[in-house]
Amino acid sequence: MPGTLFYNLHIRIRLVLRGEKAMSDSFVLELKGITKAYFGTTVLKDVNLSVRPGEIHALVGENGAGKSTLMNILFGMPVIHETGGFDGEVMLDGESVRIESPRRAMELGIGMVHQEFMLLPGFTITENIKLNREITRKNVVSRVLGAKMETLNVPAMRKDARAALEKLSLSVDEWAPVAGLPVGYKQFVEIAREIDKKNIKLLVFDEPTAVLTESEAEYLLDAMRRLAAEGIAILFITHRLDEVMSISHNITILRDGEIVAQMPKDEAKIERIAELMVGRKIERAKLPPRGFEPSDSEIALSISDLRVEMPGERVKGLNLRVRKGEILGIGGLAGHGKVGIANGVMGMYPAMGEVVKGGMDVPLNDSKAALQAQMAFVSEDRRGVGLLLDESIEMNIVLTSMQAQNKFLYKGPLNSLRLQNGKRIRSHALKMIKDLDIRCTGPMQLVRRLSGGNQQKVCIARAFTLEPEVLWVSEPTRGIDVGAKQLVLDLLVEFNRTHGMTVVMTSSELAELRKICDRIAIVYEGKVVGILPPDASDVEYGLMMAGKAGNVKEVG
Amino acid sequence: MSNANTNANANAPTPASSGRVAENRIIKAVANFLEWYGVPRLIITCFLLALLILAVIYRMDLGSLLGDSLKRVGMNGLLVLAMVPTITCGAGLNFGLPVGIICGLVGGVFSMSMNLTGFTGFFVAILLALPLSVIAGWLYAKLLEKVAGQEMMVGTYVGFSVVAGMAIFWLTAPIKNPSMIFAIGGQGLRYTLTLYDYYAGVLNNFLAFNIVIGNFAMTIPTGLLLFFGFFCVLMYLFFRSRTGLAMLAVGSNPEYAASSGINIRKMRYTGVIMSTVLGAIGIIVYAQSYGFLQLYNAPLYMAFPAIAAILIGGATLRKATISQVIIGSILFFTLLTTALPVVQTVLDGSEVGGGISEIARMIIQNGAILYALTRVGRR
Predict the structure, then answer these.
(1) pLDDT(B246) > 90
(2) What does the pLDDT look like over A458-501, one tens digit per residue?
(3) CATH architecture type of domain A28-108+201-279
(4) Which of B315, B246, B375 is closest to B93 using CA atoms?
(5) How many CB atoms lie within 10 A of CB A360?
(6) How many domains does chain B have?
(7) Contact A201, A233 (CB under 8 A)
(8) Does A391 touch chain B (CB under 8 A)?
(9) Which end of chain B offers a freer environment for a tag, N or C, measured as fewer CB atoms within 10 Å?
(10) Do B75 and B21 share a structural domain?
(11) Model confidence over B290-336: pLDDT tens digits?
């Protein structure tokens, strides 16, 4: 068919051109002055980035540094256009391009290896690789009804798939279904699909090693090197600094939407990268003093070998001791399990291990038992777990205490049929509204109508009403405005100082942990790698969060 | 409504004159009222008022119209109330209400076969129905647990199947009372059992009295209304108790409930069983007022008027209150009772009248259900 011939010829010409360009040392991708704001908040500011053919370019940064926004722009994701587009220029092979959809990105030769696999489990490897780009043959029906009815040319498709897999030196049968493959193999199928696209120029790897074992990761890095050697440019997004050091040619470090440094690998040091990644000045206001200093002699809670099956935030055999009366911070990068700890202890997700509080075993997988052990939890999922959106503020505040501790009920013979004590509920709610400065029209206002910060205060009031000895707080400042953030943090300090409440606070924002915590435990791959004082250096924090701490540290 | 809101907001910052301010205030008040009362409820209320005005214009017997409506409200009230526990515990509208209704019918039939009359017959029917409906409710809850998220669709078909299955039971029930079984053959219950010699009207006539002003005369079925009121108060109290509030939390946000140490499964079971029990008692109340026990296919569509009533009352698939039950019952069943005679009179007794009012009933009943279902998931 003349069309196919023409197409092939076209590709050949392109390949030749690309070869020339690679030699002429020009850039495959250039991002110039990329600036992007979501609803007035600038998330990317004047980002410049260029990648040469055959170059592995590492892009590192904390959560929220703007890496995913940058990738969304590169792939023309709808979220970018729906929120008003972006400023700046994207250039491919020296030409300015407009990427208005992921499809267009694909046509331009940009490929993506996703963090979560986008594969059809019931299909074979070949089918997955060739999906929507099938090689077809004409048949009787297709001559009448058009190309949609052409027969699949299975042998040719297998051959292509085989070739792509061999490029990655993966010894797996191309006709095997994807469903039963080990995780590492799925990752490779995904890569094979991208490199099978004949015009691929740039491959983006978004934390590809996050789900792999060490040997699998090593193998993947090898494959990436080989791909680069063939002239494909690679953008490598990762948190793992040793991987960055081992394979990248150039490194770009993003922080708070800005490029803080760009350097060739030879000039980089892990410590320097870690510092740049985290580095921001922390002003630690002087916190109110307390009567006694928490120490290891009085332990409020001791957790050993905790395992929590929380999807995306697995905890894998964690040990932690919480001192009585302290504010303990739990930090770490997303996906390493810091959020899973509180959820596991409080019975929200299946957990195994041992939790001892005041000499008593706290049964796991039982929210009621956890509540009765004088612990309370402010969930990171405010609207999902923390609130009854269509109920009143007062009901939200007292219901848990009513159910778990039989408070706010009139006397009655049967606990389950005791009636609510409206007067007590109202007076308690009014007190909470006043103490926590919840801005509302009254205790009967529906929680849905409140702003994020005030909703969070209701969540905290709910936990506080339980009068817990240990208060777990997850991501207390997520999604609320700056002023409210400070209020919430002050509130936690106040609970800690005036009520002697032990607070365990999990947060993705290291800065706020360093603001109010006595000690900060850093979680990496489901375990505590170390506990740092809030005034430890950025380097120490950066290294620990990247899993590069030599030994588990304890601070006094 | 949103339109009215934007008007109010757009005008608020620029108070050009005091007239404008007053206008704004009125617009705001109207908007608030609309939000509180709800547009669907408003439409039905207007329709009902129009019917009543027509009735007055055509010099119809308003007293008997209103008296009949009150009777209808009382006899259907418990069936509407039966929707509240399932909605509150998060299982949605109880389309499987026939499960409870069947239990009530079995109780009614056996009480009748024992030749019990008056209040004895009525209460024995309820007593017999109670254990049955608890067991049936438990089984039904067990089934719903397996299909969580699709309770309403599955419930509809459970209702249909149970009604069909029970037809076999009615045919083979070991009942010898000749007034209850088919005249020929000596076995099988009749389609409709007359309660006049047993316990028809025991509640309706209890403390009943007439209001007569000139040529306006209406009967108040005191006992019936008291019985309905009693159950409304019970339910109201229940939803202020610890268990009732736990159920509310389960329906409103299961995750919140779980994090409060509430046993979600237990609350769902309790809700479904309560609804089934109310359905069983509800049908006995209905039957004593109607004067007949209707067997075989009769319970097939019994759930739908009750569902329509509570939705018209302003309930959603996630939230229902006792006041919504009362308002909805009054609006919907008064509409049903007045529409037929009024339309017939207006059209001068022609054949068309009955058809039109029946069509109106179907449109309102099913329209209300459809309206509610299209709003699922809008949070």
Answers:
(1) yes
(2) 999 999 899 899 999 998 887 676 667 788 888 889 888 888 89
(3) 3-Layer(aba) Sandwich (3.40)
(4) B315
(5) 9
(6) 2
(7) yes
(8) yes
(9) C
(10) no
(11) 988 888 888 888 888 898 888 888 888 888 899 999 999 998 888 88
User: Which is more confident, B44 or B234?
Assistant: B234
Residue type at position A549: A
| Structure confidence by residue, pLDDT tens digits, B86-95 | 999 988 888 8
Task: Say how far apart CA B114 and CA A411 lie, in whole Å.
Answer: 43
pLDDT of residue B57: 87
Measured distance CA(B221)–CA(B209) in Å, rounded: 7
B94 forms beta bridges with none
Q: What is the pLDDT of residues B333-355, one digit of tens each?
A: 888 888 778 877 777 666 665 67
Q: Considering only CB atoms, which chain A residues are within 8 Å of B379?
A: 389
Amino acid identity at A545 = M
- Mark yes or no for CB contact A417/B243 under 8 Å: yes
Return the DSSP state at A302.
E
Over residues B271-300, mean pLDDT: 91
pLDDT score for A211: 67
Please, which residues have CB within 8 angstroms of residue A3's CB and are 6 or more apart in sequence?
none
Q: Which of B242, B256, B258 sits opposite A387 (nearest CB)?
A: B256
Cα separation, A192 vs A168, whole angstroms: 7
Distance CA A402, CA A407 (A): 5
**Residue A551 near chain B (CB below 8 Å):** no
A414: CB partners within 8 A, 6+ apart: none
Judge whether A389 is closer than 8 Å to chain B, CB to CB. Answer: yes
The answer to the question of residue B139 being in a domain is yes
B275 and B141 fall within a common domain: yes
**Same domain for B136 and B77?**
yes
Within chain A, all domains assigned CATH 3.40.50.300 are found at 28-108+201-279, 304-545
- Record: contact A417-B258, CB cut-off 8 A: no
Report residue B4's pLDDT band, with 50, 70 and 90 as the boundaries.
very low
**Residues A459, A387 contacting (CB under 8 angstroms):** yes
Give yes or no for A411 touching B (CB within 8 A): no
pLDDT category at A63 given cuts 50, 70, 90 is low
Mean pLDDT of chain A: 82
What tokens does A326 get? 């302290």
Measured CA angle at A222 (ends A219, A224), to 5 deg: 115
**Of A377, A387, A417, Cβ closest to residue B242:** A417
Half-sphere exposure of B232 (CA within 13 A, CB side): 20
Does residue A390 sit at the B interface (CB-CB below 8 Å)?
yes
- The boundaries of the domain holding residue B325 are 38-374
Residue B50 sits in the same domain as residue B121: yes
CATH number of A304-545: 3.40.50.300
Write out residues 313-352 of B within 8 Å (CB-CB) of A. Answer: 318-319
Q: Are residues B277 and B167 in the same domain?
A: yes
- DSSP states of A51-68 as a string? E-TT-EEEEE--TTSSHH
* pLDDT at position B233: 95
pLDDT over 90 percentage in chain A: 15
| Residue in A190, A250, A243, A193 with CA at minimum distance from that of residue A218 | A243
- Would you state the pLDDT for residue A4? 47
User: Is the per-residue pLDDT at A23 higher than 50?
Assistant: no
End-to-end CA distance of chain B: 17
Residues B24 and B92 occupy one common structural domain = no
B379 belongs to a structural domain: no
Q: What's the rounded Cα separation, in Å, for the pair A192 and A330? A: 38
Beta bridge partners of residue B211, listed in sequence order: B218
Q: In the prediction, which pLDDT does A115 show?
A: 65
pLDDT of residue A7: 47
ipTM: 0.79
Shared-domain flag, residues B230 and B84 = yes
Beta bridge partners of residue A137, listed in sequence order? A151
Residues 238-257 of B with CB under 8 A from A: 238, 240-243, 245-246, 248-249, 252-253, 255-256
